[in-house]
Amino acid sequence: MKIYGVALLAACFLLGKLLGRLLGHILDINSDIGGVGFAMFLLMTSSIYLRKKKWLVLETEKGIWFWSAMYIPIIVAMTSTLNVKAALSGGVLAVILGICATVVCMFMVPLISKIGREKNIDSQK
User: If DSSP codes are grouped into helix, strand and coil, which group holds residue 83?
Assistant: First the structure.
């Protein structure tokens, strides 16, 4: 059932935001630092753990995968708009560094996908 995917997603999101706020408080910054990253990591690890323990029925697993697939693009889009606003108000250097980081990441995608394909080809032999 897809509702189980929502429950796991919500729990991971809330715990991730809590950890991000806690890290911000520890570093004396009045902001959430890495809450989305913590939430994504928790979502991945918890679903892997539940699958290994065989506590997931097929329908629940489909729900978790569905909401995982929905969660990542939405959160990335939300955080990217915040980063653009901060970069534009931060000056020309922030914009240039942002563009450079984006270009480097674009070149890394084919390399990373090639690594995954080589691993799958080797495991099939």
Answer: helix
